[in-house]
Design goal:
Blueprint: H1 7-17, H2 21-33, E1 69-77, E2 80-88, E3 99-103, H3 110-117, H4 119-126, E4 129-133, H5 158-174, E5 181-186, H6 188-199, E6 206-210, H7 221-228, E7 251-256, H8 265-274, E8 292-300, E9 303-311, E10 317-324, E11 331-332, E12 341-342, H9 348-356
Parallel strand pairs: 3-4, 3-5, 5-6, 6-7, 7-10, 11-12
Antiparallel strand pairs: 1-2, 2-4, 8-9, 9-10
Length: 361
């Protein structure tokens, strides 16, 4: 008998040899899903149930269509443990794809946030992996990231260390492109994304913040509520790099001017903080000391917007601020299948991705 080993299983073998066990598992699942295994007879008239991360529904009456995997794992270090969900698009076959880390807002979770932003669909379209860390209810009763506490505003401490650890674990497990790693978030997740960009400029190539707040905008619960009301944002620029690093992380900001939960002035504060610190000379770590600025007024998705773009001396966008007129505290251009999502206005997910993919460390 002449048996031919399917290409998908050969690729899985190669991944095992390279130590990429999670990637190998995903490759095996795709090979089985795509028909490598012998078909199993199914009782007629009975629908199959999909068990996340292990099996997939097969619709024998419809043309075959690509489906990704959404798997749950956990990461632990001295700061604690957090679950995370990773979306692996069907196009992944062991190649070094970009990675996007998505940080949900209060009272949300990975599934809800994925549905609201439609980021998994974009992962299929553009070819990247998405990871959604989950805040634990025991860490915050509303499942908010604790962006306002000093112990969670430092590199290699608290929640930043957990998110960075999850990021590195996924990069290693799937053999991803470490130069194209991005972090984005909504509200408290947006504020934590600002923390991650500030404390790990060597890990994240760009940051996206929707309806969030700047790094160290607060130091406790009372000052957090004050910052959310727009109070205390005129204290002047805070030093954005406490570790002395010169690299400024490219940043895109979205905020609705009718947001009554997080005042729109926080978007201005984020851009001010992301702006390069003036210096006498440009260095390889601080490549956009001087930049040009353009302002665009437009309308899309039923909402008007003002977009301000700051470019470096080569013309590349390094800061982008979207003020969505009439928008409240919700992800613009999102899906009503998730919470804190506004289906009108610019597609924040697609615009963030466009911005991200122009940057690499």
């Amino acid at each position: 008998m002449n048996l031919k080993i399917p290409a998908g299983l050969l690729n899985a073998t190669r991944l095992v040899r390279d130590g990429k066990l999670m990637a190998a598992t995903a490759a095996i699942q795709r090979a089985l899903r795509d028909g490598v295994a012998a078909p199993v007879a199914e009782p007629s008239g009975v629908d199959n149930l999909a068990i996340e991360g292990s099996y997939r529904v097969v619709d024998v009456d419809a043309p075959a269509r690509a489906r990704g995997e959404f798997v749950t794992r956990s990461y632990a270090n001295g700061a604690g443990m957090r679950e995370y969900k990773t979306y692996i698009p069907a196009v992944y076959d062991g190649q070094a794809l970009p990675l996007l880390v998505m940080l949900h807002g209060c009272k949300q979770g990975p599934d809800d946030f994925a549905a609201a932003t439609r980021m998994n669909a974009l992962a299929e379209e553009y070819g990247f992996i998405v990871v959604y860390p989950r805040q634990a209810a025991k860490a915050n009763v509303s499942k908010c990231w604790n962006w306002f506490e000093p112990k969670h505003q430092q590199r290699d401490r608290g929640e930043p260390s957990l998110i960075a650890g999850i990021t590195r674990e996924v990069i290693s497990a799937y053999g991803l492109d470490a130069r194209q790693v991005y972090v984005a978030g909504l509200s408290a997740g947006g504020a934590m994304a600002a923390v991650m960009g500030t404390t790990y400029p060597d890990l994240y190539a760009a940051v996206g913040i929707h309806s969030g707040l700047a790094y160290q905008a607060a130091r406790d619960v009372p000052s957090a509520f004050a910052a959310m009301r727009g109070q205390g944002t005129k204290r002047g620029k805070r030093k954005p790099r406490p570790d002395g690093s010169m690299r400024k992380v490219p940043t895109i900001v979205f905020h609705g001017d009718s947001d009554t939960t997080v005042h729109p002035s926080n978007g201005d504060e984020l851009i001010a903080q992301a702006s390069p610190v003036p210096s006498a000379s440009k260095t390889s770590e601080n490549a956009f000391v001087e930049h040009g600025c353009t302002v665009e007024h437009g309308e899309t998705g039923g909402r008007a917007y003002t977009r301000t773009t700051h470019r470096d001396t080569t013309g590349n966008p390094v800061m982008e601020q979207w003020l969505i007129h009439g928008a409240a505290h919700a992800w613009c251009g999102g899906s009503t299948e998730g919470s804190f999502s506004d289906p009108t206005g610019p597609d924040a997910s697609r615009e963030m991705l466009r911005f991200f993919l122009q940057h690499a460390i």
